[in-house]
Specification:
By secondary structure, the chain is mostly helical. It contains four helices and two strands, in the order ββαααα. It has one domain. The protein has a two-stranded antiparallel ribbon with strand order 1-2. A hairpin with a 5-residue loop joins strand 1 and strand 2. Helix 1 packs parallel to helix 3.
């Protein structure tokens, strides 16, 4: 699975903070920490197309498997996870050996 299978990174939000204190001269000081809500919003907007395609692929996989295999994919958050779960469960454990023997 390539980069397309990896979900985009959204930074963890941290709020605007105001830190108040007194400096060494006895002067009251306020320091403003701006937060990162703009960066979080921009990352979410940039990730929206990826999430839309992921949800479509996950729906396709979920609808394609029978009820007897649904337990393998129903808890997956990403299509790549669902696909990997199906591959692990359904791929024969000796498939590499079989391929080597056929050649």
């Amino acid at each position: 699975m390539g980069d397309e299978a990896t979900p985009p990174q959204i930074p963890a939000p941290f709020p605007v903070r105001i830190i108040r204190g007194v400096d060494s001269n006895g002067t009251h000081v306020e320091i403003h920490s701006p937060g990162n809500q703009a960066a979080v919003n921009a990352a979410k907007a940039a990730a929206a197309p990826w999430h839309k395609k992921n949800n479509q692929a996950l729906d396709f996989i979920t609808n394609a498997v029978g009820d007897n295999l649904l337990y393998l994919v129903k808890r997956a958050n990403y299509a790549a996870e669902a696909w990997a779960s199906l591959r692990t469960a359904l791929q024969p454990s000796n498939s590499i050996q079989v391929l080597a023997i056929k050649q």
